């Protein structure tokens, strides 16, 4: 049975199931016996739409009809320029589904669909902006996809603009897409040249969503890890100010912040700022060693390991009472990364005569450290003991 509320040309009809069958029979009998004047027939509105709005079961109305075989992608590409926004949305959803297939993803790249997506990133519809970013993120998993996106500077520019989008879901997709792009070395060079270090640091200071902050910090860590110029650019704009996030209640943000600081402290300028910064970053990292989250401890110990290579930092460690904490974590054999970082940090501290004199008192304690059969940690421990026992 058809119901009037589901068809545009029946909107003015009221259907009811309360009339009994006997009443219908009586009405039919009376109609047969005598003619009914034409003015008694209700007037119907003209047909407004030839397309029925009742869809068959299991039909997804959010997807466009996909052509067969190699004609599918060209048809969807053509629909991306349709004036009807509903058609564009359906085409984008179908394109997103097909992009998950590696073979189709390669075809999307080969048919130059990516430049067609660039203009849609400026759409007033947040759903379109979000879906385009999702397509770009999926395509970025393909090596050719990352290169194709980087060859379109307008897309990178639009991604940077969408990091300031009023919709949280769009900003989140933009940050996630940027993270996927930064996972390839060749793309990292392009992102650094396009000034994304400054863009990420700027948005980190403004962003309040924790997921987006995590994506941006992880992206910054990748850029710093794979590009030496990125260190200089980040330190020039006071990237060490990000140390304030070490006090964030979210453990993921604290962990990623410590990882970013570890990358910054690899550079000589970063080592100097570790001690000279007004926020006393070394003290904040020392507090993070007692964090409840294990990853925060590991990343904080890595940052200390790189930061304790200068003489001012080694002397500052005495005021922070850092030695007892590091000695404690050298005995945690069930966490090799934390144990190794603390042993290497102690090795750096032992190079200073004042610290070496204190470590001489516990050298027997260190020699009995359980390395759990890890040869790498055993070698680092041997280096630490030799440094402590070294005499000029």
Automatic annotation (TrEMBL):
Lineage: Eukaryota, Metazoa, Ecdysozoa, Arthropoda, Hexapoda
Name of this chain's protein: Condensin complex subunit 1 C-terminal domain-containing protein
SUPFAM superfamilies attached to this UniProt entry: ARM repeat
Domain of life the protein comes from: Eukaryota
InterPro entries: ARM-like, ARM-type_fold, Armadillo, RSP14
Originating species: Clastoptera arizonana (Arizona spittle bug)
């Amino acid at each position: 049975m058809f119901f009037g509320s589901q068809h545009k040309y029946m909107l003015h009809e009221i259907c009811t199931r309360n009339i009994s069958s006997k009443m219908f029979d009586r009405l039919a009998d009376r109609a047969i016996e005598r003619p009914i004047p034409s003015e008694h027939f209700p007037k119907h509105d003209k047909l407004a739409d030839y397309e029925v709005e009742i869809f068959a079961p299991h039909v997804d109305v959010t997807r466009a009809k996909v052509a067969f075989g190699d004609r599918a992608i060209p048809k969807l590409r053509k629909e991306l320029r349709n004036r009807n926004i509903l058609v564009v949305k359906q085409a984008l959803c179908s394109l997103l589904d097909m992009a998950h297939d590696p073979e189709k993803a390669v075809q999307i790249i080969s048919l130059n669909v990516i430049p067609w997506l660039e203009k849609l990133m400026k759409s007033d519809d947040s759903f379109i902006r979000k879906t385009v970013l999702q397509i770009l993120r999926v395509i970025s998993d393909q090596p050719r996809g990352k290169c194709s996106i980087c060859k379109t500077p307008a897309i990178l520019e639009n991604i940077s603009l969408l990091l300031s989008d009023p919709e949280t879901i769009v900003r989140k997709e933009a940050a996630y897409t940027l993270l996927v792009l930064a996972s390839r070395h060749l793309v990292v060079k392009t992102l650094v040249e396009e000034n994304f270090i400054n863009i990420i640091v700027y948005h980190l200071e403004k962003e309040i969503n924790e997921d987006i902050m995590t994506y941006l910090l992880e992206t910054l860590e990748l850029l710093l890890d794979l590009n030496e110029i990125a260190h200089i650019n980040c330190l020039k704009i006071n990237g060490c100010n990000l140390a304030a996030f070490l006090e964030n209640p979210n453990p993921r943000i604290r962990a990623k912040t410590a990882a970013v600081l570890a990358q910054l402290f690899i550079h000589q300028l970063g080592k100097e700022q570790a001690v000279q910064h007004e926020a006393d970053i070394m003290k904040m990292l020392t507090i993070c060693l007692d964090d409840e989250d294990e990853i925060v401890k590991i990343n904080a110990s890595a940052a200390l390991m790189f930061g304790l290579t200068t003489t001012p930092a080694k002397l500052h460690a005495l005021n922070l009472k850092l030695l007892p904490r590091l000695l404690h974590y050298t005995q945690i054999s069930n966490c090799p990364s934390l144990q190794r970082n603390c042993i290497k940090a102690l090795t750096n501290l032992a190079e200073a005569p004042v610290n070496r004199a204190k470590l001489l008192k516990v050298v027997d304690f260190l020699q009995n450290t359980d390395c759990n059969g890890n040869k790498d940690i055993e070698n680092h421990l041997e280096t630490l003991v030799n440094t402590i026992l070294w005499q000029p």
